[in-house]
Amino acid sequence: MKIILLGPPGAGKGTQAKTLSEKLNLKHISTGDILRAAIKNNTPLGIEAKRFVESGGLVPDTLVTKMVAERISQPDVKEGFILDGFPRNIQQAESLDVFLKLQADLAVIYLDSNEKVLIQRLSGRRICQKCQAVFHTQNMPPKKEGICDSCGSALIQRPDDLEETIKNRLLVYKEQTLPLIEYYTARKKLMRVDSDKEPEAVIGEILKILKK
Ligand code: AP5
Q1: How far apart are CA 119 and CA 155, in angstroms?
Q2: Nearest protein Cα to ligand 1, atom 21
Q3: What is the SS3 assignment for 126?
Q4: What pTM did the predictor assign?
Q5: 1 contacts: CB under 8 Å, gap ≥ 6
Q6: Is the dihedral angle over the CA atoms 83, 150, 156, 120 positive or is it negative?
Q7: Nearest CA to 190 among 88, 108, 67?
Q8: pLDDT of residue 79
């Protein structure tokens, strides 16, 4: 099965994708994680993507689409995957349709969330700079403040989680990504989940929907 997790910044795509990946034994493909790793390693992709990611804009379609096409053509995702962060506009969705040849086993889960909740989640998010594990200062605090539970490295704030950049990301989402709701509704692929609830309630709802 191929699953797309769609939703605004902070809706919990990464959080839910991690659990879903374990429960369904599907690979989690996060375009944000791939881009952040490329930036950290100073690869040619990372050098090009850096200013877009750090300002909260979208990385050009040509770069991201090529990156996703390469990833989803690998043998470990032949049976399925969970896409988190792609597609993010109509052009990317059309490219994905071509790669997937409009396959029937595609489910698009729309994590719907209110803006106040999103801002609270993004401004309190902390990530592990080594293993990328995600925490929240209030909602999901690590056992020891500032330290990753999984690998013991220092937690940092993502540069794009600063207040001004959050505002820009939400604006870019409304202008470019929101039209995908209609795109996938028209194709009868979209299923909405209220992601303002506790993580356990959200995953329960997603699993229920996927079973139908
Ligand atoms: P990306 O990393 O994809 O960022 P995003 O879409 O803005 O999503 P986030 O990672 O911010 O949020 P999330 O929904 O995963 O929430 P999370 O689970 O972490 O992309 C970053 C950048 O890369 C983009 O801005 C762009 O520049 C570029 N990019 C990526 N893909 C691209 C593409 N296709 N085209 C062009 N450019 C692209 O949760 C957030 C916080 O809330 C966490 O602290 C978590 O602990 C907490 N939390 C989660 N769920 C709950 C819950 N249910 N209750 C309470 N707290 C919760």
Answers
A1: 19
A2: 32
A3: strand
A4: 0.95
A5: 24, 26, 80, 105, 106, 107, 210
A6: positive
A7: 108
A8: 87
Q: Is 86's C-beta closer than 6 angstroms to any atom of ligand 1?
A: yes
For residues 7 and 88, what is the distance between their CA atoms, to the nearest angstrom?
9
Residue 202 beta carbon below 6 angstroms from any ligand 1 atom: yes
Q: What confidence tens digit (pLDDT) does each residue in 50-97 have?
A: 999 999 999 999 999 999 999 999 999 988 999 999 999 999 999 999
**Does 36 qualify as catalytic in the annotation?**
no
Nearest to 62 by CA among 70, 73, 54, 72: 70
Q: Are 121 and 115 contacting, i.e. CB atoms less than 8 angstroms apart?
A: no
What is the identity of the amino acid at 68? Answer: V
Is 169 an annotated catalytic residue? Answer: yes
The predicted structure's pLDDT at residue 101: 81
Taking the C-alpha atoms of residue 156 and residue 147, their distance in angstroms, rounded to an integer, is: 9
Predicted local confidence at residue 103, as pLDDT: 66
d(CA 35, CA 46) in angstroms, rounded, equals 6
Rounded CA separation 201/204 (Å): 5
Residue to probe by mutation, ligand 1, list 136, 180, 205, most atoms within 8 Å of CB: 136
Is the model's pLDDT at 102 over the cut of 70?
Answer: no
Residue 139: DSSP 8-state: S
